[in-house]
Amino acid sequence: MLIIALVLALIGLVALVFAVVTSNELVAWVCIGASVLGVVLLIVDALRERQGRDQVAGEDSESAEGAGEDAAALVDHPEVDYPEEVAPVAEEAAPDDEAAEDSAK
């Protein structure tokens, strides 16, 4: 459907240029008609896509509700292991290096 709308837009553009060059009123009306039909097709396509996404989202929510206790168990007891922050090694080595330099003097 998008390809048809694109073709109608191209026809409308060509008709517009031809209508301006030749001052032909009939071709200008063809341009307007092609443009309106293309816009209607784009709106219909967008509405169909939105309905399809809503249906898929509804099916996903139904399957999540069907899982029920399994989903609740995962939320209550997540098994996520976060690593603890470790102090950089360079900061610990710095005081030892200074002590070694002091003893060398």
How would you describe the overall organization of this protein?
- Helices cover 84% and strands 0% of the residues.
- With 105 residues, the protein is an all-alpha fold.
- The longest helix has 43 residues, at 25-67.
- The chain is elongated.
- The mean pLDDT is 75.
Task: Chart the SSEs and their pairings.
Blueprint: H1 2-22, H2 25-67, H3 69-76, H4 89-104
Estimated structural class: mainly alpha
Percent helix, as a range, is over 70%
> What does the radius of gyration come to?
34 Å
Shape descriptor reads: elongated
The largest pleated sheet is described as:
none
The percentage of residues in β strands lies in: under 5%
Helix run count: 4
Low-confidence stretches: none
Number of β-strand runs: 0
Helices and strands, in N-to-C order? Answer: HHHH
Could you give the distance between the termini?
Answer: 85 Å
- Average per-residue pLDDT, rounded, comes to 75
List the defining traits of the structure above.
84% helix, 105 residues, mainly alpha
At a glance:
It is built from 4 helices and no strands. With 105 residues, the chain is an all-alpha fold. It has a domain at 1-59.
